[in-house]
Amino acid sequence: MGLFNRRPSHADLPRAIAAALELAKGERVLSFGVDDNTGGYVVATTFALLVVTSTTEPVFQRRWLFVDAGSWEPETATLTVTWTDGTRARQWSFRDQLTRLPETLRERVQASVVIATHLNLGDRRTGRVAIRQDFETRELIAQTILGRYTRADDPEVKAHVEAALAHLRDQVGLPA
Q1: Domain at 3-100: CATH code
Q2: Is the N or the C terminus of the chain less surrounded, counting Cβ atoms within 10 Å?
Q3: What residue spans define the domains of the chain?
């Protein structure tokens, strides 16, 4: 079934789960899926990615600002999400479900990036610096995401990161 034949995924979100989300003013549900492994509801809203396993409160919540990337494995219907702070990735499976979570995740993460640049620091050292927007507050936040072999305390890395962030801040009109 193609993307355009899918019905809106928020249509069947149980009221008790929706109430447990405690959405902020202006926040709305964009898509959701039920994880095959835990039965938890993985919910994408305009401001955040949440997981609700009961009707009392979300057990997991991250604003889009802190979602680094996601990947969808169609063979296993598994969504893997990585975080900007480098904490362990999370995975959820949605076999036999029509969910728009992969598309929503991609759109929300891309929309949160105002401007970004990659850093190539030699010797397999890489990183990214970005200015991202928090959808709830509209605040612009500078982020640095360093690659596996890149140490934040390396003076050369620090200098490159600071120069790149200064350039990006200037591009969007933020103070240095």
Answers
A1: 2.30.29
A2: N
A3: 3-100, 112-172
Cα separation, 173 vs 176, in Å, equals 9
Q: CB–CB of 114/133 below 8 Å?
A: yes
**32 close to 41: Cβ distance less than 8 angstroms:** yes
CA atoms within 13 A on the CB side of 173: 1
Report the candidate in 123, 121, 173 with the shortest Cα–Cα distance to residue 144.
Answer: 121
- Condensed to tens digits (0 to 9), the pLDDT of residues 126-166 reads 999 999 999 999 999 999 999 888 899 999 999 999 999 99
The dihedral region occupied by 61, where left means phi > 0, alpha psi between -120 and 50, and beta the remainder, is beta
What one-character-per-residue DSSP string does 26-68 give?
Answer: T--EEEEEE-TTT-PEEEEESSEEEEESSSS-EEEEEEGGGEE
**DSSP result, 90-150:** EEEE-TT----HHHHHHHHHHHHEEEEEEEE-STT-EEEEEEEE-TTT--EEEEEEE-TT-
